[in-house]
Task: inverse folding
């Protein structure tokens, strides 16, 4: 960003250093040297206290910041979400009385119940 005829003033350097988007600012100014020269000339002679305003001016040239990892991620797949299993509980063993139907009993079920 330095050219032989242009020196970056302290207020502009401070603005770039204190910015959360300093990398973007440096890239933008290096990509547009005529804008860098213009801002350097305009901020020449400003006190360091003006760095906040210089930073705002420089950042106003940038595109809005892209949301970071805190943003909700977009789904990668177009597949349907996984199914939700049907909730259930363990079934209770049938009692001998519940297997008796009137006077008849299922012998197979009765013997299975006795084996438990």
Result:
């Amino acid at each position: 960003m330095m050219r032989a005829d242009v020196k970056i003033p302290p207020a502009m350097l401070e603005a770039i250093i204190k910015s959360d988007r300093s990398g973007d600012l440096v890239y933008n100014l290096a990509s547009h040297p005529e804008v860098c020269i213009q801002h350097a000339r305009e901020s020449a002679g400003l006190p360091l206290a003006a760095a906040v305003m210089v930073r705002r001016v420089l950042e106003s040239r940038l595109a809005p910041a892209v949301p970071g990892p805190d943003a909700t991620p977009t789904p990668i797949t177009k597949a349907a979400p996984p199914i939700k299993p049907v909730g259930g509980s363990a079934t209770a063993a049938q009692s001998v009385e519940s297997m008796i139907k009137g006077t008849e009993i299922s012998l197979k079920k009765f013997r299975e119940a006795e084996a438990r």
Summary: The mean pLDDT is 80.
